[in-house]
Write a sequence for this structure.
């Protein structure tokens, strides 16, 4: 008992005004990077301590790689353990953390490309030195090449200004770094990493590093080549290995694979857990210095052991296996105390004892029931009340849990929307799920009868997403929707060429959903003009992050409905109750009568500093739009996107001035 506690009246007033346990208790991928729950280090400490011990052994040089498997039943805290490890690594420094979870796996036939994307996105997260992990790596490369000891934050602040004065700064630094990194097969990889130091180019650089193509003009301005779509999976693992090799020179790498359970399979018939296990086996043999963690259910581990190469796979990924435990009585009391401390601290209050208003003896009884963290916290939410008052009534609203989950996902998207906004497939899945909820309704004079995925042969796959069948004023309509967020002109053109083939793809209207304009003087723009013509009567719907966020949020809730413990029926009821889809701009605009116009306020396609007069010299027949390499040297020299070499005669001197001690 604390003799110096706050007034009971003030404490009870705070208790009556807010229930700190009444929130979604699921740990999602965003919580790994920005923890939203208090951590109790003593819970499953044997597992997290085992991971940190492996890290210390690697740092001390006793071994180079460690494979750790964390096994547990649902809800025992696998993802929470990942969050604890990330948080401690952030505090300590000396390590980079990479995390792959449900939405990151995507098409299992492209696991290498998907992991490269995850690697790049993870390295965009802020590290121990207050900048992106990519920028820490770039600084380390420069420091080694120049024999300096620069602080990453200072270098990031200086870089854009220095680059404006010395346009070939990145090119010159790349040459310097390659002198000490001669083992790197792809020099453009170094160049892209150095570009992350530029505030103007960091987004383009990380996109390129993730395997995404840039608009050709932007790629040319940064001196980076674009790979073709066909090359991506083949090149991805090689790129991953080179990045991991670079990181290993300066940091211990910790990679976590979470949420392995899925019914999806690749073309070889392997499920997600098996595909990831094989990836871990590959990485184990290629990583220079790091820990590979996989978190899974018990049955998933036995499923992996059914692989043809099971022994070699499990020997690497399961060098150490930690089974998570149910909470005991001490764990329950510590857990509740930690949550209540955060609550009372936020109110500047001091309770008479750590678990007030609960009874410690009753909490200890919960520890005898082999409960998971979530169940204990749910019990606290149900029994949160001012001492002496009757128990609160059970919530009458069956959709309350859906609302908590939706709000959690929507709030996470405030900081993660960039991760999904360029992913056409995920955006299309969210739109498709949204349309499923308006089936049978009449919106914009269209009675929606059916929503179906567009089935195509291999050559056409990936461009058109779904078809809406319905009746518009008694007339049959078949609207095919293509979400096209890619910047590369070749892909945009390929999608638009298919979107105007009404007979081949069984449609009466083609609909392009996109946030960025389609660059003039390209074949894609010709196709777009044809789509919007009165003859075809197609539509161009402007995509904005604010319009897609609620659709993404409820889509993510549905994908994780087992974790959130909600049903499909409850999710659909919530959608109707909140008018999430019926009043959504994108849903209605796709169904509305086409305007035949290009929407206002589109983002501009990123073409760097290439002037319009130069774009006019591009060959219209090229699917890639502007192929700068084919322009003659005289035309290129007349334009300002290439710096005058007379401005950089003293580049070495300028470099020394910028980067000197």
């Amino acid at each position: 008992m604390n003799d110096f506690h706050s007034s009971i009246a003030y404490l009870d007033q705070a208790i009556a005004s807010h229930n700190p346990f009444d929130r979604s208790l699921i740990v999602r991928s965003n919580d790994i990077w920005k923890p939203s729950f208090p951590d109790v280090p003593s819970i499953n400490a044997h597992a997290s301590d085992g991971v940190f011990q492996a890290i210390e052994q690697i740092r001390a040089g006793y071994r180079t790689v460690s494979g750790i498997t964390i096994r547990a039943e649902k809800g025992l805290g696998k993802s929470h353990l990942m969050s604890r490890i990330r948080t401690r690594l952030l505090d300590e420094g000396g390590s980079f953390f990479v995390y792959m979870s449900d939405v990151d796996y995507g098409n299992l036939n492209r696991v290498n490309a998907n992991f490269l994307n995850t690697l790049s996105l993870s390295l965009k997260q802020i590290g121990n030195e207050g900048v992106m992990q990519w920028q820490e790596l770039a600084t380390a490369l420069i420091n080694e090449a120049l024999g300096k000891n620069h602080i990453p934050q200072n270098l990031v602040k200086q870089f854009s200004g220095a680059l404006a004065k010395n346009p070939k700064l990145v090119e010159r630094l790349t040459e310097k770094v390659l002198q000490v990194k001669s083992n790197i097969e792809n020099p453009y990889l170094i160049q892209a990493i150095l570009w992350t130091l530029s505030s103007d180019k960091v987004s383009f650089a990380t996109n390129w590093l993730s395997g995404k193509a840039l608009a050709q003009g932007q790629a040319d301005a940064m001196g980076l080549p674009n790979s073709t779509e066909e090359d991506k999976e083949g090149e991805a693992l090689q790129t991953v290995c080179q990045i991991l090799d670079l990181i290993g020179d300066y940091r211990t790498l910790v990679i976590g694979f979470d949420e392995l359970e899925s019914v999806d399979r690749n073309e070889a018939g392997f499920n997600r857990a098996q595909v990831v296990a094989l990836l871990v086996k590959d990485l184990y043999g290629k990583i220079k210095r790091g820990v590979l963690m996989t978190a899974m259910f018990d049955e998933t581990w036995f499923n992996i052991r059914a692989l043809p190469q099971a022994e070699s796979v499990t020997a690497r990924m399961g060098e150490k296996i930690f089974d998570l435990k149910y909470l005991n009585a001490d764990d329950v009391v510590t857990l509740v105390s930690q949550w209540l401390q955060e609550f009372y601290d936020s109110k500047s209050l001091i309770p008479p004892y750590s678990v007030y208003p609960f009874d410690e003896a009753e909490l200890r009884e919960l520890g005898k029931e082999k409960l998971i963290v979530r169940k204990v916290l749910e019990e606290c939410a149900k029994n949160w009340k001012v001492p002496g008052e009757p128990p609160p009534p059970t919530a009458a609203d069956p959709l309350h849990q859906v609302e908590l989950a939706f709000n959690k996902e929507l709030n996470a998207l405030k900081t993660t929307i960039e991760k999904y906004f360029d992913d056409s497939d995920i955006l299309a899945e969210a739109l498709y799920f949204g349309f499923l909820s308006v089936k049978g309704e009449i919106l914009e004079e269209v009675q929606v009868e059916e929503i179906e995925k567009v089935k195509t042969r291999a050559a056409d796959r990936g461009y058109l997403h779904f078809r809406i069948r319905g009746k518009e004023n008694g007339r049959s309509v078949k609207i095919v929707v293509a979400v096209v967020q890619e910047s590369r002109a070749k892909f945009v053109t390929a999608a638009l060429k298919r979107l105007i083939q009404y007979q081949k793809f069984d449609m009466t209207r083609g609909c392009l959903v996109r946030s960025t304009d389609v660059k003039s003087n390209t074949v894609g723009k010709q196709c777009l003009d044809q789509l919007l013509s009165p003859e075809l009567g197609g539509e161009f719907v402007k995509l904005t992050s604010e319009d897609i966020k609620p659709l993404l949020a409820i889509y993510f809730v549905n994908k994780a409905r087992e974790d959130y413990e909600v049903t499909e029926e409850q999710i659909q009821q919530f959608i109707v109750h909140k008018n999430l889809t019926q009043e959504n701009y994108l849903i209605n605009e796709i169904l509305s009568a086409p305007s035949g116009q290009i929407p206002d306020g589109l983002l501009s396609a990123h073409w760097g500093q290439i002037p319009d007069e130069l774009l006019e010299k591009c060959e219209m027949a090229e699917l890639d739009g502007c192929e700068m390499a084919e322009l003659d040297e005289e035309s290129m020299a007349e334009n300002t996107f290439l710096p005058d070499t007379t401005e950089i005669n003293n580049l070495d001197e300028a470099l020394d001035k910028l980067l000197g001690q």
In short: Residues 455 and 461 are 8 Å apart (CA to CA). The radius of gyration is 28 Å. The mean pLDDT is 87. The first helix runs from residue 8 to 17.
